[in-house]
Amino acid sequence: MMTRAPGWLLDLTGGQTPYADAWTLQRGALGARQAGGIPDVLILLEHAPVVTLGRSARRANLLVAPDALAARGIDLFEVERGGDVTYHGPGQLVGYPILDLRALNEDVVRFMRMLEESIIRTLDAFGLTAARARGFPGVWVGDSKIAATGVAVKRRVTMHGFALNVTTDLDAFTVINPCGLGRPVTSMARLLGHPLEVAEVGRVYARQFTEVFGIALEPTSRPTVEQSFAQEAALGSH
Questions:
Q1: Percent of the chain with pLDDT over 90
Q2: Residue 76 belongs to a domain with what CATH number?
Q3: Which residues are known catalytic residues?
Q4: In what order do the strands lie in the sheet with 7-17?
Q5: pTM of the model
Q6: Which sign does the torsion angle of CA 83, 59, 78, 66 carry?
Q7: Residue 144, pLDDT score
Q8: Per the domain annotation, does 1 fall within a domain?
Q9: Element at 227 (helix H, strand E)
Q10: Dihedral, CA of residue 178, residue 182, residue 183 and residue 189, to nearest 10
Q11: Residue 156 — φ and ψ, nearest 5°?
Q12: Residues 176-194: what's their mean pLDDT?
């Protein structure tokens, strides 16, 4: 694929980002991208423990009561992405591509296959063979899910994205039926037999994202991204 116009890479790995904070950041970037005020953006981060319910979520797949989640320090959010119930937490690489789908002829299915491909290539770089599972979203190693995917598209721009288990505490998934599938989850650390740094996996992922999507990512800072929100808001008020 030919390289498109440069995009931004906002790498927030190395600390835990509360879900509400990242959600606000995504929505700001979404609005700025819709207005053409910023290029495509890939946000990479780790979340503090949280369970999210997508548009098609069934409450039965949340296996503990919300107050029990809170007692364990796990937040709960209902969000606009597709899919069912998902857990995010420390040791997990979360990626939020804020992309204008017009570059892909507004083909959401193609975008999802490319997102999966970027994850599969990342795992291959670490010596892990992963694949899609027909009829089941995400990325799989054997019968175990290693990455969840779920996106929303607003006025031709994507938000939400994927969560790749790097060194995630897999016991945390016992509070949910992941994505409503009743199948096991795994992590890179479990499969490789040694820990990894989420930031290292993020750097490899960014390279694979560039190759798959043809976007030349340039590192940026959160203040730079948030300044663009303010500029768009100021323009919109005139």
A1: 71
A2: 3.30.930.10
A3: 179
A4: 131-133, 136-141, 144-154, 157-165, 92-98, 41-47, 7-17, 217-219
A5: 0.91
A6: negative
A7: 94
A8: no
A9: helix 222-236
A10: 30
A11: 75, 15
A12: 84
Domain count across the chain: 1
User: Any long-range contacts for 110-113 (C-beta under 8 Å, 24+ apart)?
Assistant: 111/151, 111/158, 112/137, 112/149, 112/151
Amino acid at 184: P
Is 50 part of any domain? Answer: yes
Q: Is residue 83 part of a domain?
A: yes
pLDDT value for 136? 84
Give the whole-angstrom CA distance, residue 160 versus residue 44. 11
Residue 238 has pLDDT above 50, yes or no: no
The answer to whether the CB of 43 falls within 8 A of the CB of 15 is no
Q: Is the pLDDT of residue 237 over 70?
A: no
Q: What local confidence, expressed as pLDDT, does residue 236 receive? A: 56
User: What does the alpha-carbon distance between residue 20 and residue 16 come to, in Å, rounded to a whole number?
Assistant: 12
The encoded tokens of residue 18 equal 């509360």
More confident residue, 167 or 134: 167
Query: Cα(first)–Cα(last) distance of the chain, in Å?
Result: 39
